Amino acid sequence: MTARPVFVVCPPRSGSTFVVALLDSHPRIAMTNEAAWVTFLRKAFLLSSTPAGRWVDDGENLRTPGILPERYTRAVAESFLTVMHPFVAELFRRVKDRADPAWFGDKVMSLPDLQFAIEWFPDAAFVQLVRDPRDMVASTYAFQDKQPAAWEQASFEARVGHMDTFLRESSRLLEGKRAYVVRYEDLVGDAEPNAARLFAFLGLDLDDAVRGWLQGKAREMFASHGTSATPQASIGRWRQDLSPEQRDAANEALAEVLARFGYEP
Q: What CA–CA distances, in Å, run from 84 to 103, 149, 223, 244?
């Protein structure tokens, strides 16, 4: 049976590194973590499908003129993707050691990448990972102390807006698709049964390798990547980390997604 792609659809600071590693701990799943191969394919496809005389502008820092004559672009772009599907399989053969994987994949952290994955990987499954967006906003500030990143210059309003837009639009794009919603809080609060339901969505059992990972490596991962003392302390951190004004603003701006995913104000 040919391995199929599974994408973890997630905003930043959602616990996605934990979920990717959890999936990868299963012997039938091969995951990379932010290898950006979906982004690479999408941007290369945009370049190959944009004729000379026009500009490629994906809204995510790629802006360059098209190269090919217009009469060739469609054939080249579609041929590119046909050729690159085996490239993806070869990528996972080289970087992962899986004898018989049923699934392979990575994170999808942008809406353009998600749209691309939906269109060009029709046999894919999607794990929609959600976390209280107020905690994710708080975590973006805490993580800057460990690793300054793009969020460093972003205002509070921009961070809240990003979480709101991503959660709403990714939910819309995944309607009617093979998708499973998993909440970070549920995995942290009761990992094994919630992990079992996640693997069941992919047609797999929770095996001893996964149980061993949950009992060992999972704790080490949080120690190196988390910004709270314990996983449990990361839940509801927004109540202490955000100012009263920020809490009120976030509750108002995020009211729709909070209700959608079962988070109380």
A: 17, 30, 37, 50
Task: Determine phi and psi for 40, rounding to 5 degrees.
Answer: -60, -50
pLDDT tens per residue across all 265 residues of the chain: 588 999 999 999 999 999 999 999 999 999 999 888 999 999 988 888 899 989 888 877 788 888 889 999 989 988 988 888 788 878 887 777 777 789 999 999 999 999 999 999 999 999 999 999 999 999 998 887 666 666 677 899 999 999 999 999 999 999 999 999 999 999 988 999 999 999 999 999 999 999 998 888 877 777 666 677 677 888 999 999 999 999 999 999 999 999 999 999 8
Q: Does domain 4-32+96-260 correspond to CATH entry 3.40.630.30?
A: no
* pTM, entire model: 0.90
3-state per-residue secondary structure call for the chain: CCCEEEEEECCCCCCHHHHHHHHHCCCCEEECCCCCHHHHHHHHHHHHHCECCCEEECCCCCEEECCECHHHHHHHHHHHHHHHHHHHHHHHHHHCCCCCCCEEEEEECCHHHHHHHHHHCCCCEEEEEECCHHHHHHHHHHHHCCCCCHHHHCCHHHHHHHHHHHHHHHHHHCCCCCEEEEEHHHHHHCHHHHHHHHHHHCCCCCCHHHHHHHHCHHHHHHHHHCCCCCCHHHCCCHHHHCCHHHHHHHHHHCHHHHHHCCCCC
